[in-house]
Specification:
The complex is a heterodimer. Chain A is α+β, with helices and mostly antiparallel strands. In chain A, strands 1, 2, 3, 4, 7 and 8 form a 6-stranded antiparallel sheet that branches. Chain A folds into 2 domains: 3-73, no CATH class; 111-242, Immunoglobulin-like (Sandwich), CATH 2.60.40. Chain A has helices spanning 3-14, 20-43, 48-59, 62-72, 75-110, 112-115; strands spanning 121-126, 132-134, 137-147, 162-170, 185-190, 195-197, 199-206, 209-216, 225-232, 235-242. Chain A contains 6 helices and 10 strands; from the N terminus they run ααααααββββββββββ. Chain B is an alpha+beta fold. Chain B has one domain: Arc Repressor Mutant, subunit A (Orthogonal Bundle). Chain B contains 4 helices and 3 strands. The chains are: A alpha+beta, B alpha+beta. Chain A binds chain B through residues 13, 26, 28-30, 32-33, 35-37, 58-62, 64-65, 68-69, 71-73, and chain B through 24-26, 29, 43-46, 48-49, 52-53, 56, 70-73.
Chain lengths: 248, 108
């Protein structure tokens, strides 16, 4: 095919289709049609120039065809669907980032307003011990971190250290909220023989589980391990926390 | 909603062809010309706005097939397209019957 004629015809026709992906698809289809017609004319013994001219003539007026195609392929819907696709991908990416962040220990960030200056926490221990059942809940100590003046920036007074832990309570009942921690007693023992009262700070409730920050002020940072003790009525749950590579 | 069309318009012929088997555009044009002994020899470019409109209306679906380095777009008549074909055929038969009735009726 003397492709210049064909190219001109295609260019004049598809320029009316404004959405690029549609324009590309339309062009490919029209090109395939013209090529088939051209090959047939050549097979009939026409010269290349004549075959190209007749193939273009057979297609009709490019402007008329182009405008009719443009009426079907309106750019608004093309762009709308493209924007929708991009939006969905963005939502998915943000979801993944949030999920990864939470997985890496962002739970402390969630409680930022309560714990304050969470960046100050170092020596994070990721606990994955077996869950312990108590009533309708299964408790699991998920994380622990020591905070003190020597660990990055801190607002904790010189010479004081805190232990912060994240306790998760899971339930199979979607109607149950977080456990009533006010009716329970929380304390901490360490390997130095110290026993501290522990406090709950802020609670994040989700369906099937809730997270609460357990806070032990003025903690002895030289301890190698500690045990968080949760007393609920007759039950006593003990959650070991490894602090310096040792263990209870 | 689709506009009212004349009975026996190109839509009907295309839907009918695709009711027999899947075809690509050039194949439809040559088949129409062959069956009508070149009576239905249209400007070939005008076929594509019609195909794309029917595809958008859900009467046709399309798939691309690659053979010998060329990509052809085959059209397939959907269930909705079959319903449309039935309606259009009935319209055409009613219309043709009315024309015949007029032509064949003896003068009053």
């Amino acid at each position: 095919m003397q492709w210049k004629d064909g190219e001109n015809w295609l260019r004049d026709a598809v320029k009316y289709v404004k959405f690029p992906p549609d324009r590309r698809r339309v062009r490919e289809e029209l090109y395939e049609h013209m090529l088939s017609r051209n090959l047939e004319l050549l097979a009939q013994g026409r010269s290349e120039a004549e075959a190209a001219r007749l193939a273009c003539e057979a297609m009709g007026d490019p402007e008329k065809v182009g405008r009719a195609l443009a009426a079907v392929h309106k750019p608004f819907w093309g762009y709308f669907l493209r924007a929708l696709r991009i939006l969905l991908i963005l939502v998915l990416l943000v979801g993944i980032v949030v999920m990864l962040f939470n997985w890496r220990g962002g739970d402390f960030r969630f409680f930022r307003g309560v714990v304050r200056n969470y960046d100050a926490y170092g020596a994070v221990w990721i606990g994955q011990d077996a869950a312990q059942r108590c009533g309708d809940y299964r408790f699991r100590l998920r994380k622990a971190a020591v905070a003190g003046p020597g660990i990055r920036e801190t607002i904790i007074p010189e010479g004081e250290y805190n232990l912060v832990m994240l306790l998760r309570a899971a339930t199979r009942d979607p109607n149950l909220g977080a456990p009533d921690y006010s009716s329970m007693s929380l304390s901490l023992e360490d390997d130095r023989g110290n026993r501290y009262p522990a406090y709950t700070l802020g609670c994040r409730e989700l369906i099937f589980f809730s997270d609460v920050v357990v806070y032990v002020p003025r903690f002895d940072p030289s301890a190698e391990w500690a045990v968080l003790i949760l007393e609920a009525g007759e039950r006593e749950l003990r959650f070991p926390v490894t602090l310096k590579g040792g263990g209870p | 909603m689709a506009r009212e069309r004349e009975p026996g318009s190109l839509d009907l012929l295309i839907l009918h062809l695709l009711g027999e088997r899947d075809m690509y555009g050039y194949e439809m044009v040559t088949e129409l010309a062959r069956r009508s002994e070149d009576v239905f020899k249209m400007k070939e470019g005008t076929l594509y706005p019609l195909l794309h409109r029917l595809e958008k209306e859900g009467a046709l679906s399309a798939r691309e097939e690659r053979a010998e380095g060329r990509t052809r777009r085959y059209y397939h008549l959907t269930r909705r397209g079959r319903e449309l074909l039935r309606e259009r055929t009935e319209d055409w038969e009613r219309y043709a019957g009315a024309v015949n009735a007029v032509l064949c009726a003896p003068p009053a």
